[in-house]
Amino acid sequence: MSTSYRMQPEPSRNAPRRGLRKGLYLIPSVFTAANIGMGFFSVMSSLRGFQLLAGSSPDLATQHFDNAATAIGFAVLFDILDGRIARMTKTTTEIGIQLDSIADIVTFGLAPAVLAYVWGYGGSVSEGTNLHRLAWFLSFMYLMCGAFRLARFNVQASRPRVVAEGTARVDKKSFVGLPIPAAGGLIAALVHFAPRPVTGYGPESAQVYSTLLMFLVGLLGVLMVSTLRFSSFKAVGTGSRSMRTIIIVLAIGGLIVLYSQYVLLGLVLAYILHGLLTRVFSALWRRGESVEAKIETNPVGRSSSH
User: Fold this and answer.
1) Per CATH, is 15-158+169-232 categorized as 1.20.120?
2) Cα-trace Rg, the chain
């Protein structure tokens, strides 16, 4: 009896730990749910703004468009916290990865595509024309490219590439293709910078702005399915100098609160341009190294022929 009595307290001591562990798995899912909620709110605000714009209420429509863009901005924050908390608490699960991809499709694929259409070229391009059909096509292709980008990321994450030494390794420093939160974030930052609908700038200016926006949406789709590498920043804050990172993050957060229209647009543009310029400079560097190698090998070839 004494032995059975001593065995009873052990499960009761471990029960709170198991419950706490299960609770940790819910935290990333809460941020993922918030991500989906922001995407849904953005779509609804965009549609309401388009309805008010058709009813000759441009000021109210402007407010709804700004709310839709702000919701996507908050979703970017929730998406960052979702992945970082999951990695910090080691609560990454397969269902969490798939749920996060679905959330990104809604929030950074569908919501920005709808926002770009209703705020930009949807009201300024005549319906039924070839340009209007092209606007529909570009918005749809942006969504499809984002879906393909997420599917490719999931496959690459589940199947690490084999390095020269024969060991499997996942590249944590960079993403292949523009991440869909950055693509959707650029559209949202642009709308937040100038929430007034494009139709409010006059017919001629609206036509020019709509054409530029259509080009931007198409370019973002191409960048998402490209093989260009963009920094992931997953290792930021994990080193011994993480306090410096915290100070920088707090400073950027303060600037966003004070000057959100300028800082958010500047941050997204800087991130995308960094990836593009890095690819250009690396291509030029490799070309320069190949030219130098040819110059060094040619004299050797001539001397041996003599």
Assistant:
1) yes
2) 25
